[in-house]
Amino acid sequence: MKEIQVGFLMSYDYKLLKNSIPPVYNEADGITIALDENLTTWSGEKFEVHESFFTWLKSFDREHKISIYRDNFYDPGLNAMENEVKERKMLAAKMGVGNWLIQLDSDEYFIDFKSFAGELKKRNKYLDAPGKNQIQIAGYYINLYKYTDEGILHVSQPRNQKFATNYPAYVTGRNTRQRVIYVPHIVLHECLSRSEKEIRTKFSNWGHSHQINAEKFLKKWRSINQYNYKEFKNLFYLEPEKWKELSYVKGKTLAEISKNLDYGKLMPSRIYLAIKNTEEWVKFLFR
């Protein structure tokens, strides 16, 4: 036990796993990919997986770390978010409580996962009795908004996201509503930097599908480009004010984009993180 176990959710956008698995592969002790045995999304829609993906996965897995966990993750009596939580709990149980349980989606690409794994290992004491001392480890998203001819638009302000936990009592998505420890690590989130067809598929099938007005969002999304993006504010698809504005960076590939992003400016300061972590410690001190 006390391993770095990484879990991925595999669905309609499974091809993006070719981007998200490599950054974590070397430091992970094991990688488990959850795939619905009936190829059904949380909203009950069917999807297909081309056999070539499994061929790629087998050739890439040179250290034999990757396993595919097939089960029935869709319950028609639950909404999409409830099915998401169900799958995440089942995946975590497969990965094994007593390890660091990291769950990622196909469109999440870690920057410097080796350092993030080091942050977890420094806190291995939390794995001794995880049920009695539940914590979550959060890094920060850079949400990618829209590709342009020469680069990409991204949300200017990074947002925190829970990526790891010692005890997977998920309530909403990856959130267990227990104490959070914030660490200075970035994940590129290819959230909306897709075609309109792909965005529609995402909005129809993910955990928040019942909360989104897709047509209203896409009307604004279509009209934004690298020349006029500064004219638009409040861009989040759930609570618009959470994404206040966009920034632009050049790059025609993810590698170029990642190289050109100024992570030093994007990452919250260590003072800010220390304050956040102190607040969390005090909040849960007497619970």
What does this molecule look like?
With 287 residues, the chain is α/β, with parallel strands linked by helices. The chain has a domain at 4-140 and 161-192: Spore Coat Polysaccharide Biosynthesis Protein SpsA, Chain A, CATH 3.90.550. The chain has helices at 17-20, 22-25, 51-60, 80-95, 113-121, 196-205, 214-223, 254-260, 263-266, 270-283, and strands spanning 4-10, 30-36, 66-71, 100-105, 108-110, 135-147, 151-155, 159-165, 179-189, 246-250. Strands 1, 2, 3, 4, 5, 6, 7, 8, 9 and 10 form a ten-stranded mixed sheet that branches. A hairpin with a 3-residue loop joins strand 6 (135-147) and strand 7 (151-155). The mean pLDDT is 93. This is Glycosyltransferase.
Strand and helix map with partners:
Elements (H helix, E strand, L loop, with lengths): L3 E7 L6 H4 L1 H4 L4 E7 L14 H10 L5 E6 L8 H16 L4 E6 L2 E3 L2 H9 L13 E13 L3 E5 L3 E7 L13 E11 L6 H10 L8 H10 L22 E5 L3 H7 L2 H4 L3 H14 L4
Parallel strand pairs: 1-2, 1-4, 2-3, 6-9
Antiparallel strand pairs: 4-8, 5-9, 6-7, 6-8, 7-10
Radius of gyration: 19 Å
CATH C-level class of the domain at 4-140 and 161-192 is: Alpha Beta
Instruction: Give the overall average pLDDT.
Output: 93
Main sheet makeup:
10 strands, mixed
Estimate the strand proportion. 15-25%
> Which ranges are low-confidence, i.e. pLDDT below 50, for 5 or more consecutive residues?
none
Total helical segments = 10
What's the architecture of the domain at 4-140 and 161-192, going by CATH? Alpha-Beta Complex
Helix content: 25-40%
CATH topology of the domain at 4-140 and 161-192: Spore Coat Polysaccharide Biosynthesis Protein SpsA, Chain A
| Number of β-strand runs | 10
Class computed from helices, strands and strand pairing:
alpha/beta
H-E string: EHHEHEHEEHEEEEHHEHHH
Spatial separation of the terminal alpha carbons: 27 Å
Shape: globular
Protein name: Glycosyltransferase
